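Re: the 438-residue chain
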Amino acid sequence: MRGKLLLSFFLVKATMSLVAQNPFSDPENKGEWVLNKSVSDEFEGAKIDRNKWYVQGEGGHYENNFTGRAPSQFVPKNVSIANGEVTIVSKWEPDFVFLDKLNNGRKYKNITTGALITKSKFLYGYMETRCKAADGPMSSSFWTTGKGGELDVFEHFGENKNKPTSAKKYHTSFHDWRDKKLPTFGKRIWTNEHILPFRVADDYHVYGLEWNKNYVKIYIDGKLVRHATKKDVGEKWVVYNEQKVWLDSEVFPWEANPDKLTAEDFTEEGRKFKIDYVRIWQTNKDVTLDGISQNKVIDPSFEKVDKLWTITGNAKIVKGKNKSSFGKKYVEIAEGDEGEVTQTIKVKPNTSYSFSAWVKMPGTTIVKKGKSTYDNAWAGVKGLKGKDKVLKFFKNQWHRKSLQFTTKEGQTEVILFFTNKWSKRRALVDNFELVEVK
């Protein structure tokens, strides 16, 4: 009997191991994915595999000449491996001997952190990691760089005391590194901002991104939360060359002013970004956009005149020069008064959904010198059993944000909304979307 139990145990363990080598989003491997071992790692060894990884700063070598986002500096000792995972720790170390140079006008001081970069590159595939973000005012990032472009699978931020949603943000983006003469050089030119129903530093989760020559698909714990085609992204599609993989932590000045950080923001052990594995699969199969959920919003871009939308206050459907790429019409709420647009949607109980909208705030002006003006509007989901789920928008170009929520037992409908109620500033909205996350 004992022998049968042991045999059963090892069979189950072997089966789990085999399943684990398939993408979390495709456990049956219908995509015929093959693991690229040169850019994948289970981190099971006693030390970091130097044949596979650069440890940034080791031997004075800094890949891409990136020494860290000042004042934080990449330091080899801050990257370690133990118990089947890699840890990148960020520490408050004012006595450390920092590099005597400037980065973006700042000196390196006070904060040490770390980075790993693969020595090999890959072109297209499915990228996945299981990790837990550092629970502090530092980033925890999984990204790639190649000629002309950068793909950030995620740039988590563990804690922003002034903005709690930052700790729930799943942020994916492209950066333009094509030509120094371009005004977009070095800048984030396409982004996907998705608010998760949990803090990224509270527990381990599996993050995945499928990068195809024609699209990207973004996953959380095996479930698809967004897809974008090359056509959707347009001229901002800059990731078409081989990429190397990065894991790192940095200060993010747009989340927390690094000049105001103190020792109290870092525990004695430091803020730890923990990575269980990195896996990159590739396939020769013709992959498609199968599995995309249908939008449950009827007339999402206000192209039809019907009674599905409830429009109140100073809001109205208009045509004009401010139109987005989704049609000729959008909703505008005029300056000086409040308005709202809503639609009631049938949903299933105990089901996860992703809600998104495209918004433009024409009155926002952001300047490097002088006083910037930030106009705000809000979109979200109400009628839930619990708190409303809300996104805040302020940018003066059309931009998309999304959030994720799960309905409770007995929930059969929700209300999608957009309003300027708390600001009474001019606001434009288009292309609502509610899709099932599966």
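The chain has two domains: 20-282, 310-436.
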